[in-house]
Fold these 2 entries.
Entry 1:
Amino acid sequence: MSIEPGQKLLHYELVEQIAEGGMEVVWRGRDTKLDRDVAIKILPDDFAQNPDRLARFSREAKLLASLNHANIATIHGLKQDAGMHFLAMELVEGEDPPPEPPEAPSPFTYCRVTRP
């Protein structure tokens, strides 16, 4: 799947890639019907061909759509176009979260249990 800025998926125009995770690629998009910026989370081809991954993506969309909270992006829809599965969702502006610190060793790693 080759995705380029300016490409359209339904009435969403892709502007720029803003994130990439283990299971999806997120683009800043423009909803040309409602004239607003959105986030477009696209499921890569190799995952879209896997029924389990596709079902997981659909469950994620349904779960997020069922929630209403200021700290959770609003889902505008679970869509498919040109063979691509994607979520259209609220674009939340802001800074990237800081990277997670390296995992500290567990204090239990170094303890030894002895019996009297």
Note: The mean pLDDT is 86.
Entry 2:
Amino acid sequence: MVYCNVGTYIFYLNSSFEGDFLSPDDDRIKALEPIKPEEISISPTGHILLALNSSADSGGVGGQDLMVWGRNRESELGNGKKASLVIPATVESPDGDRVMLMTKKATEVRDLHGKVWKRGVKVEQHAVAGYECSAVYWKIE
């Protein structure tokens, strides 16, 4: 088992590569609670994106925290720098808030030609690590 203390998170991997993040002390039970990883994307060039389930139904704030680390030669970690990160860090928006991957109901979805394709559908954000790049996109449920 490998342990990694990441600021307010502790991450561990067992031999089957199932991981858990542990949140800071929970005031309700005075103990650490696990935060389950939802998705992980690993690029061929050495950076990693990890979405943690911090949604309201899991006792969190309403979305998935996006954690990043690894090689960052082309600013693929989205933090505005080119220095690599050896431990996971949250991504911050330009206004200083942490980036949360959200789910919502879209009033309408348009195709590439601008025509309405569907109305009132559930969409959710996903993050993917590519070759020296990263992207967050909306997926129709």
Note: The first strand starts at residue 2 and ends at 6.
